[in-house]
Amino acid sequence: MGCLGSKKTQDGSDGGNVVVSSQNRKSLAEKIEQGGIKVVLVGDAFTGKTSILNRLVYNQFANALPSTVGASFLTHKCQVGSRIVRMDIWDTAGSERYRAMAPMYYRQAAAALVVYDITQHATFEITEQWIDELVEREPEVIVAVVGNKCDLEESRAVTTTEAERFVQGLKSKNTAAFHMECSAKSGQNVENIFKEILMNTVSRKLTNRIRESSEWIERMSDMMTDIQTSMGLVFRLQWTAKKEMAEGELSVRNSINCLQAINI
Ligand SMILES: Nc1nc2c(ncn2[C@@H]2O[C@H](COP(=O)(O)OP(=O)(O)OP(=O)(O)O)[C@@H](O)[C@H]2O)c(=O)[nH]1
Ligand SMILES: [Mg+2]
Prior knowledge:
Blueprint: E1 3-10, H1 26-31, E2 37-43, H2 49-58, E3 71-80, E4 83-92, E5 111-117, H3 121-125, H4 127-137, E6 142-148, H5 160-172, E7 176-181, H6 190-261
Parallel strand pairs: 2-4, 2-5, 5-6, 6-7
Antiparallel strand pairs: 1-3, 3-4
The structure holds guanosine-5'-triphosphate and magnesium ion.
C-alpha cells in the first residue's frame, strides 16, 4: 500500500473549506474509485488521534498539539494492489464537551479507529462505550482498537493481552474488529493499521459481492426449476389433449363402422 496524497480541513462542524493538494492529478483522479471509504477516528482526548493522522499523511509528529475542535476532515489515497482507494477520514474531538457530536460522524462509516493511550487505563476502559455507540448505529463497521503511544513502554498501563482479550469478546458478538498498537511519535505500525482497514474493507466488499452473486444464482436456479415444472405441466396437458383427441376420433370412427355394419 502506498500513500498518494491528501486534502484536509478543520472546521469544528461539517468539513467545509476543503483544500485540494497539488498531487490530486487527473491521471490519478481517473483511477480513483467513485466514493471513498469513510473512516472515523474516535477515542478519549489526548490519546493521539490527530497525531496518528499527521504521521500517516504528512509523516510528522508534534510534541504539543492543540486539541481538535469538533472534528477535522481529510482525504487520503492509498494503493491496494492495482487499485487506488480514497479514504475519507473524520478525526473527531475526544473531549467531553464534543462527546455528543461524535455520532454525527458515524453515518455510513466503513471503519473506525477507536484509539486509547496504552499509558492511561481509563482511556482503554472507555473504548467499550465508543464501540457500543458505533456498532449500534453502524453494525457493519470494521473496528480497529488502537493502542497508541507504544513508545512509552515503561509507563504501560494496558497490557496487549488485555486488549486482545477485549477484541476477542467483540468478535464473539459478531463485531468485525482487530487490535493493533502503534506510536504516532515513532511511526511504528501507523501505516499498517490503515493497510489492515483497507484489506478488511476490500475483502468485506468482495464477500458481499460474492454473496449477492450466489443469491442471484440461487434465485435463477429456483426460476429455472419453476420454468421446468411449468414446461412439464404444458407437455402433460398437450399429451392428455392429444390422447383425448385420438380417443375421441377412435370412438367416432367406431360409431361410423357400427352404423356401416348395420347398413345405416
Ligand atoms: N509519546 C507519545 N506522545 C504522543 C503520541 N501520540 C500523541 N502524543 C501526544 O499526545 C498529545 C495528544 O495528542 P493528540 O493527537 O492531540 O490527541 P487527540 O486524541 O487528537 O486529542 P483530542 O483532539 O483532544 O481528542 C500530544 O501532546 C501529542 O504530542 C505517541 O505516539 N507517543
Ligand atoms: Mg485531535
